[in-house]
Amino acid sequence: MRSVYVKVCVMLAVATMLCTSTAVADVFWTGTTGSFTDGTNWDTGTRLDSSSWAMIDNGGTAQITAGVDATAKGLFLGYASGSGNLTMDGGTLTTTNGIVIGRLGAASVEGAHSHIDAVQP
User: Fold this and answer.
1) How many alpha carbons fall within 13 Å on the CB side of residue 49?
2) What are the strands, taking DSSP E only, across 58-120?
3) What are the sequence ranges of the domains in the chain?
4) Which of 107, 97, 48 is nearest to 77 (CA)?
5) What is the per-residue pLDDT across 92-114, written as a single tens digit (0 to 9) for each?
6) How far apart are CA 54 and CA 32, in angstroms?
């Protein structure tokens, strides 16, 4: 009976891990000043999605403008080794794990239609 119980527990644990695990990646800004949604500004060469942790700490500035919808799992500005900036003049930024502005980070949000949806679990 005990071995059946152990097997069931192991199967449930594996099933839980498979169902809840998602690929999460740290994605670093490599651009100087440019569009947040332009994949060529990120080290992966692709546009970010809700599984990407966006890191801007190379002195660059990511821009979000009117009509642009940007998404990331989380955003770190000037958090690790350098400065990082975000400017918004319209558009939307959605994160599921919030935004961290480090001691060398800055964010500028302007424009009547700028929207940040930064949920912190």
Assistant:
1) 8
2) 61-65, 69-72, 74-77, 84-89, 92-95, 99-101, 105-110, 115-118
3) 23-118
4) 107
5) 999 999 999 999 999 999 888 88
6) 15
